[in-house]
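Replying to the earlier thread about multi-chain prediction with a worked example.

Input:
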Amino acid sequence: MNLGDLAGRLSLKILSNKEDLEKAVSGGYVSDMLSDVLANSSAGDIWITFQRHTNIVAVANLKNLAGIIIVNNRQPDEETLKKAATEKVTLMTTQMSTFETAGRIYQLLEEKD
Amino acid sequence: MAFNKTTEGSFQLIGGEFTHAGEASMELKRKLTDLVLAQDIIKRAAVVAFEAEMNVIIHAAAGWMRYYITPDRLRLVITDMGPGIKDIDMAMKDGYSTAPEWIKEMGWGAGMGLPNIKNNSDKMKIDSVVGEGTTVEIIINLNQEE
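Result:
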């Protein structure tokens, strides 16, 4: 499954780096603590979080995450959008909760196996 | 190995500057990628650099990240002018953090920074003087045996 498929299936709004939607999603990680993501996520994971400040872009870039989904209809700030464009990180938003988003993605990933 | 001499450089870090936080680490990662280092090395170096960079930005007034790459190892030296660490053993404990509440609201301050650095490096050394600053030195060996 790639980012484009995921966004389509879950009706996610893509806010940056729309050129990279072919990127594969191999797993997922849920956390709002950045050092936890640095320690425990894997390359290719889609990161589900409520954090929306610029540092999330660096985390996704440094860990080669597939992209970021910000939940509960929270919007990334201006700086975050700018940085995501510069660093080519795909930022997406959803009105779903973390629980629902993670549950649905987990299911989709299991289906593909 | 794509090089046979020392490659080195440095980045200035500004305390409290969260907008540009991570740029030094991302630049270092690009450099390591250009040098065609192993993915695992780049992954570990990225975490180490970012956690060390964030410690300066969160706790200190200013600092430097210097890197030295030779065929056999990557050496990072992150030094700051800041409060220093009173009890290094405590600071190394998972979950221990001196970060204020507003930092925790950003998702930092979980007390995992120094443990993350330790877990991703082959050697780690911390020197600190309370009231002056801290230097963290990290070595990642480039010729890893599987």
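DSSP finds five helices and five strands in chain A.

Feel free to reuse this layout for your own posts.
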